[in-house]
Amino acid sequence: MNQLNRRQAIQLLGMSSIGYFLGSCTNDLTTQVGNLSEPLNQSFGELLVRSQGLIPEFSASVIDPKALLINTYDLTPKIDPIDYKLVIDGEVKFPTELNLFNLKKLPFASMIMQHVCVEGWAAIVQWGGIRLRDLAQIVQPKAGVRYVLFGSADKYTDSWDLASALHPQTLLAYQMNGQPLPVENGAPLRLAAPIKLGYKQSKWVTKISFVSQIPQGGKGYWEEQGYEWFGGI
Ligand SMILES: Nc1nc2c(c(=O)[nH]1)N[C@H]1C(S)=C(S)[C@@H](COP(=O)(O)O)O[C@H]1N2
Ligand SMILES: [Mo]
Fold it and tell me: What is the pLDDT of residue 29?
């Protein structure tokens, strides 16, 4: 597996975007660049290597666009793609904000997987976007991080274990079945992973926080109402 590191990510994002890209950091640029050569914290580095068991994919011929039902607990939020920003923060060395222009410069990943909703339906879908592990490489979670919290524009929340979040098939998708991701399915950016049930796949993700503890009431919208937290498939 070709693993993007922080230095490569910054090169991809381009020198011109470095000021913006690192804009939310308190340190100055010299300190940031100095830190690029720091070794990864051990637990994060180990997880990147360990959480690689790939889930077999489906062939394109079994993609079934009509089988994927829209499942949204409330209203579809209105997000202007021009104004959209993904905030990545928490216990990380380099908290940041990325807009769609920058996010789309990161390596593109695509997969065909089965989406399983606990309400009794499933669908084979192709998702395209970026790997969450590539975003983790950019912000560098500190030692002690065990969970990832996701905030969405419709106020939906969810939380994942770090190993699942760093799985190579855990994507933040901006493409579905070969087309730009439809708004109802979570545009501009949604989670997609073959290792988790449908309710773990947050749509309209606007915030990703790496944390050592899940705050009170922060397990997730459905999980706080009794759904199983891990939600594995
Ligand atoms: N922000 C947000 N994400 C969400 C939901 C939601 O209501 N809001 N519903 C979840 C559930 S239960 C499922 S099955 C999938 C449905 O994704 P789809 O509407 O693209 O089929 O989104 C998940 N992600
Ligand atoms: Mo669901």
Answer: 38
CATH number of 60-225: 3.90.420.10
CA of 118 to the centre of ligand 2 (A): 5
Q: Name the burial class of residue 104, with classes exposed (0-12), middle (13-18) and buried (19+) by CB atoms within 10 angstroms of its CB.
A: middle
**Domain segments of the chain as ranges:** 6-51, 60-225
Cβ(31)–Cβ(42) below 8 Å: no
pLDDT at residue number 20: 47
Closest atom of ligand 1 relative to the 222 alpha carbon: 12
At 97, is the secondary structure helix, strand, or coil? strand
From the list 206, 89, 229, the residue with the least C-alpha distance to 145 is: 89
Q: Mind listing the pLDDT tens digit for each residue in 26-38? A: 444 334 433 444 4
Instruction: Tell me which residues of the chain have a pLDDT lower than 50.
Output: 1, 15-39
Q: Which atom of ligand 1 is least distant from the CA of 197?
A: 14
